[in-house]
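COURSE: Structural Biology Practicum
ASSIGNMENT: Worksheet 4, Part C
STUDENT ID: 0417
INSTRUCTIONS: Below are two proteins. For each, the amino acid sequence is given first, followed by its structure token string. Answer the questions at the end about the second protein only.

PROTEIN I
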Amino acid sequence: MLQVGKKPTKNEKLLRVDTVYGMLCDGKARSDILRQSAELWDISERTCDSYIAEARVKLEEDCQLTRQAFMAEALAGYRSIRSQAERRGQLMVAKTTLDAMCSLVGLDGKTA
């Protein structure tokens, strides 16, 4: 039977849940998360399942963006890509990025 380590502090638990959150974002399977968590923190399957449940709640909260918030994030990402492309002289990449930005906000003349 797996020996259980000492109870973590509040901050340690938050860090563990954030680590499991990252594993979920990376597409890790439950079995992989269980194994890695046992290796990292010497915790039981039940404790790990609790961390997974908390991490999934955080994941759902992060995915509940409004359309405006999502567009703002997407446009910021496109701006960054376009700026980097222009600095490197990659004008076709910059133009393609600008086209994608126009399409995102509906300025491409196409109907959704």
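PROTEIN II
(use this one for the questions)
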Amino acid sequence: MYFLFWKANLLNKPPTLNNQFMERNEQVIRRFYTAFQKLDYTTMQNCYADDALFNDPVFGLLQGKEVTAMWEMLCKNAANFSLTFSDIQLLDEEYATCHWVATYTFSKTGRQVVNNIRAYMRIINGAITEHTDKFDLWKWSRQALGMPGLLLGWSNFIQGKVHRTAKKSLEKFMMTE
């Protein structure tokens, strides 16, 4: 990826990318987030490759069925949920990024969260193979947890507890499905 852009700058020409792949990848991203807006986890799951990897500050690294189960769990438990997405950038024939904002009531505390997220995706053959969501976990914890998040949300203790709790919730969800 970096070589492509370096070479383009060197020659003072834009990189030539396969528009067919680029358009298909943008369609995958739009299908995924449009489905998420509707809490349609089945369509979201169908956007992923079987062995996809996912990573974010709350769940950490997930693979395969864990990824699709996470989206199902989040959609089924969503309360007062809305989502917007924008700024889709196709970086090359496989890599893309976009911005999305989820607004919802955090079920454990009843507090409203507005989470600004930058997604990074790798899409191969029309399926998401890698997906990383980046956001400020301290900011999230201040909203979701209130005073404990405000005072200690920056700490490894609280962030570790958030991560362990999310993973346990996902494991329990997967056992019941």
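ANSWER KEY EXCERPT:
Q1: Confidence is low (pLDDT under 50) at residues 1-16.
Q2: The two ends are 39 Å apart (CA to CA).
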